[in-house]
Amino acid sequence: MIIALNHRLEKTAKEIRKIQQSAYRIEAELMGFDGIPQLNESVLEIQNADEIFLGHTGNPLKGFLSYKEIGHLIDIHRLAVAPEYFRQGIASDLLEGLFRQFEGRDFLVSTGAANEPAKKLYRKYGFEELRVFEPEPGIWCAEFMKSR
After folding, report:
1. Fewest beta carbons less than 10 Å away: which of 4, 55, 63, 85?
2. Nearest residue to 23 via CA among 99, 134, 115
3. Number of structural domains in the chain
4. pLDDT tens digit string along 26-69?
5. pTM here?
6. Residues 6+ apart with CB under 8 A from 22
7. Helices 116-124 and 90-101: crossing angle, nearest 10°?
8. Is residue 68 within 8 Å of residue 106, measured between CB atoms?
9. Rounded distance between C-alpha atoms, residue 97 and residue 40, angstroms
10. For residues 14 and 32, what is the distance between their CA atoms, to the nearest angstrom?
11. What does the pLDDT read at residue 37?
12. Residue 144 in contact with residue 110, Cβ under 8 Å?
């Protein structure tokens, strides 16, 4: 089940941080870049994030996503699953929950250009690659859009 998370609570922010550090470490290895901002984000920074967080219920939390609503666009900022729960449909459940909540909206997301599992997931849900860009010299990301 997908639920809203109160990331302002220290306990919840700690759970988010633990998942994102382990998940983004794997993406960092795929990209050959250890400067992904979420790898070094503090609990306080997560608590102060101006994003809305959804989580995959369970004890412990298995995965989460965060987004911002910008007019008719839903901008997905984070999607992370604890590695021990990879390939169990957690990311799909999170995306499907978001799509149900914002039916008829456009969705935007970015991932490392070398992160084939994430790119495959987004394509499965109808996202189309808009562009590949270089946020840091030698580091490549891919941006995807799912339109109504």
Report:
1. 4
2. 115
3. 1
4. 676 666 666 666 667 899 999 999 999 999 987 789 999 999 99
5. 0.89
6. 82, 83
7. 40
8. no
9. 28
10. 26
11. 64
12. yes
Instruction: Give the integer Cα–Cα distance in Å for 77 and 53.
Output: 10
**Is beta strand 73-81 parallel, antiparallel or unpaired with respect to 106-112?**
parallel
| Better-scored residue on pLDDT, 11 or 58 | 11
The residue type found at 145 is M
Range of the domain at 118: 2-146
The full 3-state SS of the chain, as one line of letters, equals CEEEECCCCHHHHHHHHHHHHHHHHHHHHHHCCCCCHHHCCCHHHHHCCCCEEEEECCCCCCEEEEEEEECCEEEEEEEEECHHHCCCCHHHHHHHHHHHHCCCCEEEEEEECCCHHHHHHHHHCCCEEEEEEEEECCEEEEEEEECC
* CA 9 to the chain's CA centroid: 19
Structure tokens given for 51: 């994003």
